[in-house]
Amino acid sequence: MSIHHLGRSTFGDVSNTGNLMPIEEAHQLLTDWVPNDRLRLHMKQVAAVMKAWAIEKENADDLTARKWELAGLLHDADWEKHPNEHCRIIIEELERRHIDPEVIHCIASHGPRYFGVEPKNTMDKMIYAFDELSGFIHAAALIRPNRYEGMDVKSVLKKLKTPSFAAQVNRDDVTDAIARIDTSLEEIIQFIIDHQKDVQ
Ligand SMILES: [Fe+2]
Known about the structure:
Layout: H1 23-33, H2 37-57, H3 62-74, H4 88-96, H5 101-108, H6 112-115, H7 122-142, H8 153-160, H9 171-179, H10 185-196
The chain binds fe (ii) ion (FE2).
GO molecular function: hydrolase activity
Protein name: Hydrolase
Organism: Niastella populi
């Protein structure tokens, strides 16, 4: 698999600012585009964490919280069917649907090394910070008998220092993402545990 840079840095159209899709429609898109249950769950988890962060930490209004949620929910929507064109396909679909440019930019910048788009605003930076860690924490939960119950930050940090555990999670990306925000790795891990544990 190879991911190519998107080759551009502007997405969507400012005249579509504030234009989202109903969350049911986004879930339907996931059902249609992503047969893999585990990948769908990953996106729902990132969406829940993004929405919670917007409300609890950024004092977001309803529309803004829904933007954060939508970006989380769709960020990997084209991954399963178009791994070599990830995330160009979902970006073009959202542009075709006249979705808010900030949502599209957020998706485009969720892996700067891969897509060649730098995170700009807080929403961009937080999806970058949450994405890999969310998947990593879920992988850690799956090998515990009680899953998320009693899971602590320390054990996650220890696993991060074990290269063989969830080896596909690039530790350099995690470090880079955390360096761009004002929140500690420990706090981000705790926030993810708290807000994705009940997502189904
Ligand atoms: Fe992801």
